[in-house]
Design a protein that fits this description.
- The protein is α/β, with parallel strands linked by helices.
- The strands form 3 sheets. Strands 1-7-6-5-4-2-3 form a 7-stranded mixed beta sheet, with helices on both faces. It has a 4-stranded antiparallel beta sheet with strand order 10-11-13-12, with helices on one face.
- A hairpin with an 8-residue loop joins strand 12 and strand 13.
- The protein contains 17 helices and 13 strands.
- It has 3 domains: about 1-65, no CATH class; about 85-340, Type I PLP-dependent aspartate aminotransferase-like (Major domain) (Aspartate Aminotransferase, domain 2), CATH 3.40.640.10; about 350-470, Aspartate Aminotransferase, domain 1.
- The longest helix is centred in the C-terminal third of the chain and has 37 residues, at about 325-365.
- It binds pyridoxal-5'-phosphate.
- The site of pyridoxal-5'-phosphate (PLP) has 13 residues, from helix 6.
């Protein structure tokens, strides 16, 4: 791979294909489009042959790492394998070829799919109603908080604060701030659970809600959640669940039964639609009885004559995204749910939890476990032991790249020193898990014998260590001649 950009491969006049001369007279563009709208210069597109294009992008795809290539234990992200049948269904003409401006009667199948997907999500979550609109988990959070505000406003006081455990995902405080509430952190106790004494001190009439991730970001189920719910009820506050990762709960625990008022669900994690790199997602929100009236419009409903968009919801917070959500993502999630059925979904969660606990048992002799409780679908280790040798979590993550694996999430949750957060997901075989365990053990041994070597990693990737902050802050996404 020469590392050239496609623009740098350009050669004037080179074409991807040639056709015989046109046998008909073509209308001149100025006759069709007013001259002032026509460009004065040819666009500076790369001029390359077809094989150069193909080779360029195949080479790029080889540089990439993805779930189709190998194990991707990125904690909190649920990088499970996405079955290809999801893609086949999403590409069916009747789904891929429709347009959101079409009349309802022309797209009954699409409405039916969205209607039943909402029903399935209600059933899975035990909640009363669902909106499929939010395009990502973070947007689901914001929409959920808007519902909470609408509810409190109708009670006469929007309130001021939202409580968040100190282990919360970064999107939680961001959403709270954007929704106009004040972020108030709640301490975790030595078991990695919400500290009830701290919670009690923080609760008052100005608390709009508590946002909880369950299992939390340490991978531990909040076993005292019913007690938490009661404490919130006592001050009239609502309970929000960050359900980005339902991978541990399917068919086992229904958040609605616990008494959650809002739950966002990441279709692009639990329900196996591809994600990463900012691509399309799906962050439906599921709500309890008391929040249903505020859900975004349009809702999808049905009569004897078919399905329709219902805009007549006077208390609705309105629309939160263009059209009706990322439809192709909804099709993939629908396919996945139908393919597995009740029992299949339960097995997914059982396997996700089993896989995480298997890794824990195998790795415990080599790495510190951050909190002693039995985890659910992911585990959080600490590299504190290795750090004594000078090898940090980031060095271990980089060394894993050399050994053929994607790195786990590191330095999150923030309450764990040198955190290494591993989520194997349900889709990996025991053989794959064993190979990963071998790699992690090898690194632990290298950290003792040759810490300097580990700190040089990665040595086998196309580029070594990057200036990660610089890469994010000084983006260069546009090519121009002056880059040459
Ligand atoms: C991924 C994730 C989110 C955010 O979801 P996006 O779709 O990336 O916006 C929120 N909370 C938790 C716990 C997550 O894992």
């Amino acid at each position: 791979m020469s590392g050239k950009l496609i623009f740098e491969r350009s050669s004037p006049g080179r074409r991807g294909f040639t056709l015989p001369p046109l046998g008909v007279t073509r209308k001149k563009l100025p006759d069709l489009i007013p001259g002032s709208f026509l460009r004065k210069h040819e666009p500076e597109l790369p001029e390359v042959a077809e094989n150069e294009v193909i080779r360029h992008f195949v080479a790029l795809s080889r540089l990439n790492y993805h779930v189709d290539k190998g194990f991707y234990p990125l904690g909190s992200c649920t990088m499970k394998y996405n079955p290809k049948v999801n893609e086949m269904v999403a590409r069916l003409d009747g789904f891929a070829g429709i347009h959101p401006f079409q009349d309802e009667e022309d797209v009954q199948g699409a409405l039916e799919l969205m209607y039943y997907l909402s029903e399935y999500l209600c059933k899975i979550s035990g909640m009363k109603a669902v909106s499929l609109q939010p395009a990502a988990g973070a947007q689901g959070e914001l929409a959920g908080l808007m519902l909470i505000r609408a509810y409190h406003e109708e009670q006469g006081n929007p309130r001021k604060k939202v409580l968040l455990p100190d282990s919360a995902h970064g999107t939680n405080p961001a959403s709270v701030a954007i929704s106009g509430y004040k972020v108030v952190p709640v301490r975790s106790n030595d078991k990695g659970l919400i500290d009830l004494a701290d919670l009690k001190n923080l609760l008052d009439d100005d608390v709009a809600a508590l946002m909880v991730t369950n299992p939390n970001t340490l991978g531990i189920f909040e076993s005292e959640i019913k007690q938490v719910k009661k404490m919130l009820d006592d001050v009239g506050a609502l309970l929000y669940m960050d359900g980005a990762n339902l991978n541990a709960l399917l068919g086992i625990v229904r958040p609605g039964d616990i008494g959650f008022d809002v739950l966002h669900i990441n279709l692009h994690k639990t329900f196996s639609t591809p994600h990463g790199g900012g691509g399309p997602g799906g962050g439906p929100i599921a709500v309890s009885d008391r929040l249903e009236d505020y859900l975004p419009v349009p809702r999808i409903d049905k009569t004897d004559s078919g399905f329709y968009f219902d805009y007549n919801r006077p208390k609705s917070i309105g629309k939160v995204t263009t059209f009706f959500g990322n439809f192709a993502v909804l099709v993939r999630a629908f396919t996945y749910i139908r393919m597995h059925g009740d029992e299949g979904l339960r097995k997914i969660s059982r396997n996700a939890v089993l896989n995480a606990n298997y890794l824990l048992k195998k790795l415990e002799p080599y790495y510190e476990l951050a909190y002693p409780s039995t985890p659910m679908h992911e585990i959080v280790l600490s590299a504190d032991k290795q750090k004594k040798q000078g090898v940090k979590a980031i060095d271990i993550a980089k060394r894993l790249l050399d050994l053929g694996f994607h790195a786990p999430t590191i330095y999150f949750p923030l309450i764990v020193h040198e955190a290494i957060m591993i989520e194997p997901t349900d889709t990996e075989s025991k053989e794959t898990l064993d190979e990963f365990v071998q790699a992690m053990i090898q690194i632990a041994q290298e950290a003792e014998k040759d810490p300097e070597g580990v700190k040089q990693a990665p040595v086998s990737t196309p580029v070594g260590r990057l200036d990660e902050a610089g890469a994010a802050r000084n983006l260069k996404v546009r090519w121009s001649h002056s880059n040459e």
